[in-house]
Amino acid sequence: MEEKDQLAPTEFVHDGKLTRRTFVKGAGWLTITSAVGATAVGCAPSAPAEKDELAETGPVADPEEGFTYKSACCSVNCTSRCHLRARVKDDKIYTVTPGQMPGRDDYANCCLRSIGLGTRTHDENVRVMHPMKRTGERGSGEFEQISWEQAIEEIAERMEASKAQYGAKACGFYSFTGNLSKLSWEAPTRFAGTYGGTAFDIEGIMGDHGATMGMTLCFGQGRGAHDTRDYMNSKMVVLWGRNVADTHTSEFRYLVKARENGAKIVVVDPRLCSTAAIADQWIPIKAQTDPALALGMMNVIISNDLHAKDWLVANSVAPFLVRESDGALLRDGEGEDAAWMVWDEASGKAVPNTTEGVTAALSGTFEVDGETCRTSFDHLVDEVSKYTLEYTSEITGLDPDVIETFAMEYINAQPAGIRMGQGMQRVYNSHSPFRTVATLAAVAGYIGVEGGGASHAGGTASIRSTPGITIPAFNYDAWADTGANEVNMVKSSTLYDQIITGDPNPIDFMWFANSNFINMSPDSNKIINEVLPKISTIVTVDPYWTWTARYSDYVLPACNYWEKWDFLDRSPWVFFQSPAVTPAGESKSDVEIMSLLAAKVGLGDLWAKTDEEWVR
Hints:
- It is built from 21 helices and 25 strands.
- By secondary structure, the protein is an alpha/beta fold.
- Among the domains are: 187 residues, 3-Layer(aba) Sandwich (Rossmann fold), CATH 3.40.50.740; 164 residues, 3-Layer(aba) Sandwich (Dimethylsulfoxide Reductase, domain 2), CATH 3.40.228; 77 residues, no CATH class.
- Helix 5 packs parallel to helix 14 and helix 9 runs parallel beside helix 14.
């Protein structure tokens, strides 16, 4: 068997279509979680030696005897979705290595974190092995082991008491990015819907809402971006506040390949981070001054008449007319569907931007029905012209020559790609860095260009929202059915204030899943001293003992991704997972835990499927 065949999963979904290698009857799609033969690559025994070459030491055991290979998809929060292969014997994971995906020889990759999770699966020192109930003060770490029956009974009673006193919305369910598999991640939110409780979205609680806002203002969406492989098409790669060497190692291989292809690697970061240390250039910008650098670079580009005029006219709001009287965009009528107005150079008048054959002016001042109007681009020029090299240098702490050279190399790279990280949004007005850097890429004409872009948060879109791709069969209708109730969805950026003030409704019961909430949220002292004391019941569901678990009233043992049925997507594939090993201790999947609680409060009919039944 060839190495590639041994590394590849035996069953998979590609581009939403069933591709035949081994069909799982009745599964509705294909799976990556099948066992591979015992003579996997690198582990096959050597050819037999001649008899006289053998020392008389007795028979040698086959190192692969009793081992099988099972697969999973890493589902933690970096979103790389690495295919993992575990070497399993006697229901124990011994090693974890990268797995291959069909048609992608470059795909095999995983980080030390995902490798380490294989051995942590069996580590009783870090795993929550049994349902636990707090016996000491919150944070003391003092718990007693109880049965699942007692845990569910008491939690249900306390949840119902909160509902009786304050209403169902007082029962909150918080699921974050510790496990992004569909069933695990969505089960708590689905339960909130079936119960009529409150759930919190993932925007904002880590101080990450600014990135989404800034990108949405420019692109209409907060997450879409270039695939990481597009690094290899760039002549210059700018990592703006993104330390991929430490925080997103799956991207790093493409960065190396980009450099091998001749790309210059530039890191914009206040710190000499790991990525900056190995880049071709480190630009040590003063913290929180990223917008000024982007505006200064735009000024250099526009002043040298190097901006992408044709691209701006065809693909942006740059030619749209703005009324001088009130700063509003000029439109062809009232209502949301009214077209935007541009100045047609051919006819010498303002026309809707949708007019066929229009030649829109990028710059100029025009009279339209008695209103003086200028183009949006001219308003941008007014702003960026303030950011001279000297002024930009004063703000950013960078030498004027560094700023000018960076801007000129960026515009002349043709193309250059920018990948932004979330670190530069941990400030007030945190949308501004993303908005200005994205605008810089637009001025250069790099948006939508191979090797270009100004991307954030990865760049692999979910197949569920990709036009033209057929989604494999799943119980979507049943999973979306919340019965007579619906979820009260709240922005997590308001979570602290809502719990502390009780406005617009109290949160008296809190269920944390897939999240070490105290550790990953801002101002842990405020959480411990002001937020958590307002909650009468705190339940944490987690495979591991976390800081949040220590401050909980009940801690329930959850399966990790090696121990359960689930699936998740990474375009263009859907990963289907089945258990590789038996769950540690008394661990249960998030779906099974929610099903037990649902049955106790009269919602069992909406949670009647097992994990495997939901997947199939």
